[in-house]
Amino acid sequence: MPVPDLVLDPALKLWVLLPISVVMVLVGILRSYISVLLQPKMKLQDYKLVREQQHLARLRTYRRNYSVFWAKQELQNKIDFFISEYSGTKYLKELPPSDPNEIKNPLADANSSDFLLQMVKNNFANYVPQTLIMWWVNYFFKGYVVMRLPFNLTGNFKSMLQQSIDTTDLDVTYVSAISWYFVNLLGLKSIYSLLLDDGDIVNQLMAQQQQQPMVPPIAGAGPSVDKQFKAELENLQIVPFKSCLDGIESRFAEKWE
Predict the structure, then answer these.
(1) pTM exceeding the 0.70 threshold for the entire prediction
(2) Which stretches are transmembrane (predicted)?
(3) 66: burial class by Cβ within 10 Å (0-12, 13-18, 19+)?
C-alpha cells in the first residue's frame, strides 16, 4: 500500500533548515579565523638544509637539461666535476649513519615535531565544533522530516537522506534534519568563497570539514639525502649526449618561415 504524501509545516524552513545552515556557516567562518591564528610563525631554515636542497636541485637540473652542451667532451667534463664534487659529504646537512640499514626516526626531527603539533591543533579546532554541531542537530531535531526534494531519486539515496528516520516505506525524496546537516557540510564551498574571498582558506576549510587534514611531509620518511645524491650521480653517468646544435638548421627555418 503506497504511503500518502506528508504535509510538512512551512515553519520548518524558518526554525530548522535556516538555523542549521546559518550556524554551520558562522562556525565555519569562525573556524577559518581560528586556523589562521593557530598557524605557526615563519622560522628561518637551517642554512645547511637549504644548501643541501639547492645542490640536489642543481644536479637534477643538469640531468634534465643535458642537451645544452655543444660537444660530448664538454658534457663529460661537467659530469666528472659533479662526481668529484658531490661524491663526499661536503654538502650534506648531516653525516650519513654508519649502519646503512639504520632507519632514522622521523619524530626526532624538530620540524617534524612542529608539523605534528600543528596538525593536532588543526584537528582539534575541526573536530570539536563538528562534534558539537552534530550533537546539537541530533539532540533537538532527531527524527524531523524537514523538506522534500523537488526531483525523484533512487532507493540508494534513502540511507543518506533519511538518517535517524526509522521507516522503510517513506519516499526517498524526504530529507531528515541530520541529513540536511551533512548536505551543508559538503555543499557550503560557494558560500565560503563568497564570504571569505580567499581560495586557499576555503579549500583548507572544506578539507577540514570533510575530515581530510592536510598533512605536511615528515622529514626522514623518504630516502636519505646521501642516497639521493648517489642516485643523481648515477643517472648523470648514463645520460645520452645530444648536442644543442643538432637540427639547428631546421629549427631556425621553422621559426622564421
Answers:
(1) no
(2) 12-34
(3) middle
Strands (E), the chain: 145-148, 174-176
Say what the alpha-carbon torsion angle 105, 108, 112, 114 is, to the nearest 10 degrees.
Answer: 160
* Grid cell locating 116: 605534528
Under a CB-based contact definition with an 8 Å cutoff, are residues 213 and 121 in contact?
Answer: no
Residue 226's CB is within 10 A of a number of other CB atoms, namely 19
Q: pLDDT tens digits for 18-60? A: 999 999 889 888 888 887 787 777 777 788 888 888 989 988 8
**CA 64 – CA 55 distance, rounded (Å):** 14
Phi and psi angles of residue 176, each rounded to the nearest 5 degrees, phi first? -90, 170
Read off the C-alpha cell for 45.
631554515
- Residue reference for cell 637534477: 60
> Considering all CA atoms of the chain, what is the largest pairwise distance in Å, rounded to the nearest integer?
89
Q: Identity (one letter) of the amino acid at 15?
A: W
- Segment 236-252, tens digit of pLDDT: 888 777 777 777 778 77
| Separation CA 109–CA 152 (nearest Å) | 55
Rg from Cα positions in the chain: 30
